[in-house]
Amino acid sequence: MIVAEITLRSFTENIFLAMGCSIEHARLAADVLLKSDLRGIDSHGVARLTGYVRLWEKKRINTKPNITIVHETPTTATVDGDAGLGLVVAPYAMQVAIDKAERYGSGWVAVRNSNHFGIAGYHALMAVESDMIGFAMTNASPLVSPTYSSERLLGTNPMCYAFPAGKYPSLIVDMATSAAANGKLEIAQRLGKQVPEGWIQDKNGRATTDPHALKSGGSLLPLGGDTEHGSHKGFGLGATVDILSAVLSGANYGPWVPPFVAFLEPPTDPVGAGIGHFVGAMRVDGFRPVDEFKAHLDNWIERFKASATVEPNQKVIIPGEPETAAEKERKITGIPLVAAVVNDLNVLAEKFGVAKL
Amino acid sequence: MIVAEITLRSFTENIFLAMGCSIEHARLAADVLLKSDLRGIDSHGVARLTGYVRLWEKKRINTKPNITIVHETPTTATVDGDAGLGLVVAPYAMQVAIDKAERYGSGWVAVRNSNHFGIAGYHALMAVESDMIGFAMTNASPLVSPTYSSERLLGTNPMCYAFPAGKYPSLIVDMATSAAANGKLEIAQRLGKQVPEGWIQDKNGRATTDPHALKSGGSLLPLGGDTEHGSHKGFGLGATVDILSAVLSGANYGPWVPPFVAFLEPPTDPVGAGIGHFVGAMRVDGFRPVDEFKAHLDNWIERFKASATVEPNQKVIIPGEPETAAEKERKITGIPLVAAVVNDLNVLAEKFGVAKL
Known about the structure:
homodimer, alpha+beta, Hypothetical Oxidoreductase Yiak, Chain: A, domain 1, Ribosomal Protein S8, Chain: A, domain 1, 2 domains, three-stranded antiparallel beta sheet, 12 strands, globular
């Protein structure tokens, strides 16, 4: 089923309104989810709406949060999200960072007591609109084992860097610090296919290609996969995200991060509040004139796009390029939704008395 | 041969003095190299001294640089290294970042017209001493191919994050964004061993396990190794380092980065000046009280160290832990140098009329 952006947006806003969000928050939360669907990152868009609703039903999401700055210097701050949707807490924090950068050159905000914030790219891109470099990261439900470990101690902990270009779209590096995203496992499960070695391990920490291993106590592996291929680097990146997002902000970290799924209870011995994010912005003209930077980034992009490739018909892909292309297309052609997602959304519609898709 | 720290330090200082460095710069440059040798990162210490000398002989390193801030806001700056040793330019830039952070909460410095800066960890750790979080990255000679490419367009572009802990040593993530470091290939070459798939490709971009492939036009692969294992993430990280270090500062980027080896000439069509770095510092107490942060980071470290492991005798390694242990030991027992390095250093001693090791 293909749904026009405007239809899906209004549907999503209505669900958030029905959950008790203000009009402003409902619009913002829907905008974050729609951005993901438009950019082709189907796993992080409206497909997650039911998940947010379930957490709200469990009273783990507060749809009327009083988001506050609890600590700050001219260029740093810690924000308490009051258990709000990460979809509204993270943009609030990013705006604080942008305002600080406007005034002092850079701004950095650690966030605690939040929830899943959608795609990191949404928040980092907010800075790009003001000719700033944007940073966004978040910790997440523990699914990843550190190198040598058989326990799930880290989330897929994404990090995102966004840079404004001139004639080309913004260059956006937005990546989980695990070898593979959970969404890719789910696809393999549905198709009954094995996954490559280096994505997951079983509950004893042994390499496996069975995509169902995660459900029976296994774990995702850090980027790099195994020690021979640098999994300690993926672990180090995931650790960095966890520490900046949660140890710095006062959120839960490591195995204490509350799970995104409502059927799993959060740990009873929290070490902080909710999940944590870390966002930042730096003015490009704090370093060199914006037009110079953009001209050189355009040159960088052109040189990499023109690179000789292994297969003549496979060009080098600039980070963010496929997502920007998807966004351009889907704004016109609409957003394709698989039947299971449409069904889930219509169950929500019925629950809240909202018009079905 | 095992050399006492004090002996190797004084030897190294004398070489830098003989190259025309000021006493202050010679001490600092030697300190950066010694830190690497002490921490067990043998590839980046005095083993590189001959390389610096050769670049100086080619007039590509200026041992009397006038390092200046060419652009700044309260919390950002661009530094021109005047073709100086990165070993002295990067600490200068880091001090600028720390001073800005002292006053405004955070400080960020992009550096152009510099050279190889040793280990990223040295610079990031400068911030930790002031209870700040330290960041350091640099671009480097092009040896790495982006995903799908058969050309060398990026360096091993390391990134480093350093965090001050309480009762434990600082947690330091210091990693090349390639799957394997060049030093590991050299070891395999010496031993006549094959390397794992996913480290390198040949000049046509085909997977190979021959460690000599790099010398015959092949390239290193980004962290992740291949598309199935997330090499686009390693490419994205390498790109981020390149853009922050060079597109932002006005240094050379991508394939225009001047090679570290003196026998290869720099490109004749530079897009900037020298190589680039990017360093930063954020005050921990810009986010939460330092003692709270350290107590939680200690707890993080304890939980990860206590993790159940795949092999009972192999514990989870906290990032930076082996290097800190090596430093503690080598400060007492001395620094082991392989015969080839001792020989190279004594050739330098003879050249400069300095006492041999």
